[in-house]
Amino acid sequence: MPENSPEMVVQDTIHFNDLPKIWQEHILKRQAGGFLAKNKMIFTKDEILEATADKSSFSSPLAVNNVFERIK
């Protein structure tokens, strides 16, 4: 990589098919409702953490970390 190039930040990502079924169902509902692009099939860890950050979320940050560790 050239010295003057900006440093690329690589985030952990996960494919829709690697998500737990309950998360897949939630994503499909969001896509059907127009809240999420229908062709979005790859998600970053930050996106999943943001989606589960709400108090009413059924998933904890620990669960998100476990899912990402499982797919490595």
Task: Tell me what you see in this structure.
It is a single chain. With 72 residues, this protein is mainly α. The protein has a domain at 13-23 and 35-71. The protein is 42% helix and 8% strand. The chain has three helices and two strands; from the N terminus they run βαβαα. It has helices at 21-32, 45-51, 61-71, and strands at 13-15, 42-44. It has a two-stranded antiparallel ribbon with strand order 1-2. The longest helix is centred in the middle third of the chain and has 12 residues, at 21-32. The chain is globular, with a radius of gyration of 14 Å.
Salient structural properties:
72 residues, two-stranded antiparallel ribbon, 3 helices
Summarize the model shown.
The chain has a two-stranded antiparallel ribbon.
Our measurement of the CA-to-CA distance between the termini, rounded to an integer number of angstroms, reads: 25 Å
Tally the helices: 3
Output the structural class: mainly alpha
| Spatial ordering of strands, largest sheet | 1-2
Globular, elongated, flat, extended or rod-shaped: what is the shape?
Answer: globular
Poorly predicted runs:
none
The largest β sheet comes out as: 2 strands, antiparallel
Regarding quaternary structure, what we see is single chain
Radius of gyration from the alpha-carbon trace, in angstroms: 14 Å
Mean pLDDT, rounded to whole units?
85
Secondary-structure blueprint:
Blueprint lengths: L12 E3 L5 H12 L9 E3 H7 L9 H11 L1
Antiparallel strand pairs: 1-2
